[in-house]
Amino acid sequence: MNEHSIRLINQIKKAIETYLSGKMEPRQLFQIVEGSIDAIEENSVKKKLMEFLVIINDSIYLYDEKEGKAYLSQEYEKLNIG
Question: What is the pLDDT of residues 19-29, one digit of tens each?
Fold first, then answer.
């Protein structure tokens, strides 16, 4: 994996952790992940992040805030992006 992709992935992980700690709104997290996907070169990582984007969206619209955060946290633990 190239250096640029690694930095973007670390930025995404930090954003997810910031959201889970209650310091970011879910829509901000969605925008950060969405904005980073195209710049990542590894297709397998892109695919996982696109799937995770759907999970973020679901956590916003299908659950209340507490349940959405719990759901997102569970799915983040399964996410293996490096």
Answer: 999 999 999 99
